[in-house]
Amino acid sequence: MSARRRPPKNKSSQKNSASNSVLPSFPKCYKKNSKPHKFCPGCGHPIVLKMLGQAIDELKIQNKSVFLIDIGCSLLAWDFYNIDTTQTHHGRTIPVALGFKRANPEAVVIAYLGDGGAYSIGMQHLVHATLRNENITTIVVNNMNYGMTGGQMAPTTITEQPPTTTAPFGRKEKYLGTPLKGPEMLEKIGVPGQYIARMSVDVPPQLKLTLKKALQHQMDKKGFSFVEALSYCPNNWKTNAAETIATLQKAKQEFPTYEKEL
Amino acid sequence: MPQKENRQFLQGNVVAAHAALAAGATHFYGYPITPSSEILETWVNLVGDPAKPNKSPVTKEPLQYLQCEDEMTSGFAMIGSCLAGKKAFTTTAGPGNILMQDAFSAAEALRIPTVALIMQRGGLSTSTVIYSQEEVTLTCLGGNGEGFRVVYSPHNIQELYDYTIKAFNTAWKYRYPTFVLGDGYQGKMHGEVNLHTMDPKSYVKPKPILLSNKGKNKKSVNLRNCYDQEEEIYEIIEKYRKDFARDSKKIAESESLFLDDAESVIISHGIVSTAAKEAVGRLRKHGQKIGFWRPITLRPIDLPGLLKAVKGKKEIIYIESALGQLSRLINDELMSSNDNRVRNVRIKTMFKPALGISPRDITDFISKNVS
Ligand SMILES: Cc1ncc(C[n+]2csc(CCOP(=O)(O)OP(=O)(O)O)c2C)c(N)n1
Ligand code: SF4
Fold first, then answer.
1. CATH, range B255-369
2. B90: contact with A, CB 8 A cutoff
3. Do the bridges between strand B27-30 and strand B64-67 make them parallel or antiparallel, or are there none, so unpaired?
4. Does B79 touch chain A (CB under 8 A)?
5. pLDDT tens digits for B161-195?
6. Is there a contact between A110 and A229 (Cβ–Cβ < 8 Å)?
7. Contact (CB, 8 A) for B315 and B348
8. Which of A51, A126, B119, B261 is the most core-located residue (most Cβ within 10 A)?
9. What's B189's DSSP letter?
């Protein structure tokens, strides 16, 4: 795992990497002096961010992108890229993004947030941004818990998952509600033409492809695009590497790969 | 200041929306709430058909609006448009003002030049929608911040127009979230107003905060409002404190009447001042040595102006449609003075929370309570 996130040792390894391969290229849009990054070892966020960085490089949009991040573990990415960035408040990233886009339609506007930010405290923003077909790209990192605050139950916490601090006996749906499926929900309310996807961090090339499609969708002025990245949180899942991977595999049954242009 | 004259008889909220237009605002975000909704509705009419929107008379850019799903969206979308370099604004009141503090405290932390037109409701909670000064504390000091904000408190419809225009220029010149604090009475009342054009000399052009530098070797702007070191945020607050103290000297405004020979001075703000000025005029006719002072900016307070009004007087009389929200702000400033001629001044209060206050109420109070 850790080798994946290391920058290339020399130029030749960079050269050898074809544009579609994952290893070992270090995205050009990275802010190098902020590396190593601030996420926990084995976290999924850096994989999403690396794939997003590669997508931004390939689309050559570093200088016209704004990267807007939530409060949650996404806040750790405030200086991740050499791209104009700001943090907002927990759940309010989508409003900032649509306000920016409406004022600067040429910008590529990315809202990057956790599942708590998108599906709980900021759910109304996600729903209405979808209904209004705001021309922004929303990326939700679904790690099935509230990572930043120490692993509480999230709307996405599933019954089979390791216990969370606020559902220590597991998520008993009768008492604690049913897990939320973001893309499937948006499909029900979405507007024709919208790009909605779910991919997981254990398949980075595919994840990059969905992120690239979502950004291209915005650049083509086709309206709202949305990617949920099913992600690891070994710190709060309290899992070792093998268990982390196994947990994600199990979670994929609840949160399967999804891609639709509505 | 007035440029091209344009006299009309209009409702306060309609006037406020026209002021935003004259100031060069282009983006509006809002959620309906009485008594501010006509600002939203008037702006929507000024924009016209969103498919072919009218243009700003100042910037010639198309006007925009969004009726949002809630006040958090209004506040944060306004922040987004400001980050992109557009004069964006919103309006709200009461419980909406509470929700919008979420965005205002973010704007305070990031020094975003948002403009909000607050039409106060009576407290507590949802309460009333007419005459009130019960959102002073919330507007000046709301959120988990230190009140690095500018708050104008106009006292009639003409001032509502003039200070709304000014709010946009102050916000973008000094980069503080800026407020115009009216109330239900001012918002709903009709009156004569001169919707003059803005003085071009006072115009402050907005600039993008993000994506401002499109050069090849650009360094990115990476902003944050979350810190892990206490010392880091302390340094930022210290910097803001110094900036605010410096800028206050240029921003703070007040108005005074008959201070020279006055023994007692009435202090009020906003709509109450209209009645207070009338009352002071009547009392003067009866030979009473009474003066008047009002802060036009509630944040920051014009301290030199205040000290001049208070120093050596026998008493000050606070008159408010609230339980002392203004007097707390002013007393705080007075405490900073160690001049006994300021500290020994007696304080009287006429507080009528969420009630209308007439000149008669004031003259009656003064006759009974001031020798
Ligand atoms: C208004 C508000 N409520 C609560 C919090 C505390 N808080 C910070 S991050 C967070 C949850 C983060 O979870 P998620 O959005 O899923 O992101 P993750 O950290 O898992 O990536 C919460 C509840 C806050 N910062 N602001
Ligand atoms: S708490 Fe979880 S999501 Fe947050 S950085 Fe650590 S592993 Fe990643």
1. 3.40.50.920
2. no
3. parallel
4. yes
5. 999 999 999 999 999 999 999 999 999 999 999 99
6. no
7. yes
8. B119
9. -
Task: Give, as one character, the DSSP assignment of residue A63.
Answer: G
Task: Assess A37–B contact: CB distance below 8 Å, yes or no.
Answer: no
* Nearest residue by C-alpha to atom 6 in ligand 2: A40
Whole-angstrom CA distances from B296 to A31, B152, B181 are 46, 6, 10
Q: Closest approach of chain B CAs to the CA of A158, in angstroms?
A: 29
Q: Interhelix angle for B157-174 vs B12-22, to 10°?
A: 40
Look at ligand 1, atom 16, and give the residue with the nearest C-alpha: A116
Interface pTM (ipTM) of the complex? 0.96
Break chain B into its structural domains and give their ranges: 7-212, 255-369
Tokens of B129: 């929608």
- A234: which 2 tokens? 């070994």
Band of residue B8 on the pLDDT scale cut at 50, 70, 90: very high
- Bridge partners, residue B8, by sequence: B193
Measure the CA–CA gap between A256 and A254, rounded to whole angstroms: 6
- The secondary structure of residue A39, as a DSSP letter, is S
C-alpha distance from A90 to closest chain B C-alpha (Å): 10
A 10 A CB-CB count for A67 gives 27
DSSP A199-246: EETTSHHHHHHHHHHHHHHHHTT---EEEEEE---HHHHT--HHHHHH
Residue pointed to by tokens 């922004």? A136
Q: Is residue B371 predicted with pLDDT exceeding 80?
A: no
pLDDT of residue A23: 57
pLDDT in tens, B102-156: 999 999 999 999 999 999 999 899 999 998 999 999 999 999 999 999 999 999 9
Which superfamily is assigned to A42-261 in CATH?
Thiamin diphosphate (ThDP)-binding fold, Pyr/PP domains (3.40.50.970)
Token pair for residue A127? Answer: 């729903």
Q: Give the 3-state secondary structure of residue B327.
A: helix
Q: Of B27, B216, B223, which is closest to A87 when you measure between CB atoms? A: B223
pTM (2 decimals)?
A: 0.95
Is 3.60.110.10 the CATH classification of the domain at B7-212?
A: no
Do residues B63 and B86 lie in contact, with contact meaning Cβ atoms separated by under 8 Å? no
Residue with tokens 């009392």: B283
Task: Give the ligand at the shortest distance from the Cα of B106.
Answer: 1
Distance from the alpha carbon of residue A70 to the mean position of ligand 1, in angstroms: 8
Distance of CA A31 to the CA centre of its chain: 19
Q: Which residues of A11-50 are buried (b: 16+ CB within 10 A; e: fewer)?
A: eeeeeeeeeeebebbbbbbbbeebeebbbbebbbbbbbbb
Are B7-212 and B255-369 the same fold in CATH? yes
Distance (Å, whole) CA A193 – CA B367: 73
Query: Which tokens sit at B97?
Result: 């003002």
Q: How many Cβ atoms are within 10 Å of B321's Cβ, its own excluded?
A: 29
State the first-to-last Cα distance of chain A, in angstroms, to the nearest integer: 35
Q: Is pLDDT of B70 > 60?
A: yes
- How many Å apart are CA B103 and CA B1, to the nearest integer? 32
Q: Report yes or no: A91 and A72 within 8 Å, Cβ to Cβ.
A: no
Model pLDDT for residues A3-37, shown as the tens digit of each residue: 334 444 444 444 444 455 555 668 999 999 999 99
Per-chain mean pLDDT for chain A: 92
Question: A47 near A207, Cβ under 8 Å?
Answer: yes
Tokens of B369: 């309570």
DSSP class of residue B55 equals B
